[in-house]
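Hi R.,

Here's the chain you asked about this morning:
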Amino acid sequence: MTDGFLSHLECPACGATYDADVPQNLCACGSPLLARYDLERLAASGALDDLSARPPTLWRYRELLPVRSDEHVVSLGEGMTPLTPLPRLGAAVGVPGLLMKDEGLIPTGSFKARGAAVGVSRARELGIQAVAMPTNGNAGAAWSLYAARAGMRALVVMPRDAPEITRRECAAAGAELYLVDGLIGDAGKIVGEAVAGGSWFDVSTLKEPYRLEGKKTMGLEIVEQLGGRVPDVIVYPTGGGVGLIGIHKALHELRALGRLDGPLPRLVAAQAAGCAPIVRAFEGGARTAEPFPEAQTVAFGINVANPLGATLILDAIAETGGCAIAVTDDELLAAVGETARLEGAFVCPEGAAGVAAIRRLRADGWLEPDDEVVLLNTGAGIKYPQTVSADPPVLAPGDRLPAG
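And here is the predicted structure, written out as tokens:
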């Protein structure tokens, strides 16, 4: 496939448009830019009529992705993660129709591979040779590995407390890696200075428009996996919120293509109580969020005190009749163990925040027992070994197990 259906880039805040075939960061007004497609031409083409014949990766949705030529696609087989029923956990939290979209099974062990695959592919197509980003861990690991596959250089700055395995993934891929004694915002300032020097292209969260396009494929897959319909609710662990924004965008594109009818699912932003800028804004009726002071949570991937896309997140929640809710670290850590014991699924702490949020929303009556709820587990629990304690008894050779 060549050319594709990508039309232009558009600012959702001021309406300004930009050339999609020139590397772009933020709009002049400071807002993230969104990729737009010629959906009328795509609908008329019938190109998406037989997805079942295509390989089970996110690239099956090529016409709704920004890479114009197949020769620039950089892939490790990402996408089409399972949508798994969780009947025992669903019964425990009061929502029997609970499903999990398990992104822990994707390359690099987290959903960040989706954004990296599409973002790196489009950067390569635009002639970009070196990318730079701050990260809480998983995004940096994914972009480092995909940049390596594309033959590009990567600069990554992450908080010193980020999960160690993500640091090692970056190092293994040959990225230029630095640690900062602070939060992701502090890492972002360092990256900003490096980008200003002219050697690197900034691929920070929402500062380039194509990571979001990879993330939106979660929404496209959910609809396809449900036979062309949507669930009642989608619960998304929210830090930078790119996935939630992307899912919302995907659903609107499917509706514009005539492939989706009826109301959209209610979108829920699940946050940790120690870092909940979206929840605070939602509860205050605001359309943007203020930086969250002294942000701290064991769910490191959602420890984003000042998300650039806050307005887009809050708009998606409001438009779909969704909500934002915060849970404590104790609640989400308990949910890690409960999910593994009841379903054999070792979820990441961010995904567990979604489990805890569902329990709370059902207890509050916001969720009904017959709601079909899709939980996004955004990464593999094995990348966060510290969330589960394992201190079993040690037996000497010849010892017997305790009776019973």
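One quick note: The first helix runs from residue 39 to 45.

Cheers,
M.
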